[in-house]
Amino acid sequence: MSESNGVANREAFFSGAASKRRYAVVQVPILGGVRIQSLTELERSTYEASRLDDAGQWSRESGAAAKVKLIVLCCVDGDGNCLFIDSDIPKLQQIDSIVTDTLFSKCLTHCGFSEEDIEELAKNYEATPVECSP
Predict the structure, then answer these.
(1) Strands 75-76 and 32-37, how do they pair?
(2) Average of pLDDT values for 126-130?
(3) Where are the domains of the chain?
(4) φ, ψ dihedrals at 7, nearest 5°
(5) What is the mean pLDDT of residues 53-80?
């Protein structure tokens, strides 16, 4: 912040806390503590754009991977290295949904998605039909 009037100056944006990631350890059923990171504006914009169709509407086609894609972007180890890569999405889609639901919810909150954003994602989420396996 500027010393004279208490408002942020240019330097605060580019070299201060606004330019650093935030981290949190969240409790996830079955797994315990999982470290997540905040997204940069570019990462969040890219994630949001990946959910849009050519008309700029939320795409149901990308809904099946939307939850785990955010998990891929946010989950990191103790050193801040990503735990997953995009090719892990199919594997993550096969784990217990209590894990993915909890992580997705915690990631949304940590990254600052609004209630409206969350409602829009939920409204347009279309689960991929699956058959029960014996």
Answers:
(1) antiparallel
(2) 44
(3) 40-124
(4) -110, 155
(5) 83
How far is 60 from 120, CA to CA, in rounded Å? 11
d(CA 134, CA 117): 37
DSSP 21-79: --EEEEEETTTEEEEEEPPPHHHHHHHHHHTB-TTSSBPSTTHHHHHHHHHHHHEE-TT
- Measured distance CA(37)–CA(77) in Å, rounded: 10
Q: What are phi and psi of 27, to 5 degrees?
A: -90, 125
- Regarding pTM above 0.85, the answer is no
Report yes or no: 102 and 74 within 8 Å, Cβ to Cβ: no
Query: What is the layout of strands, in order, in the sheet containing 32-37?
Result: 23-28, 32-37, 75-76
What's the angle, vertex CA 75, arms to CA 115 and CA 46, rounded to 5?
60
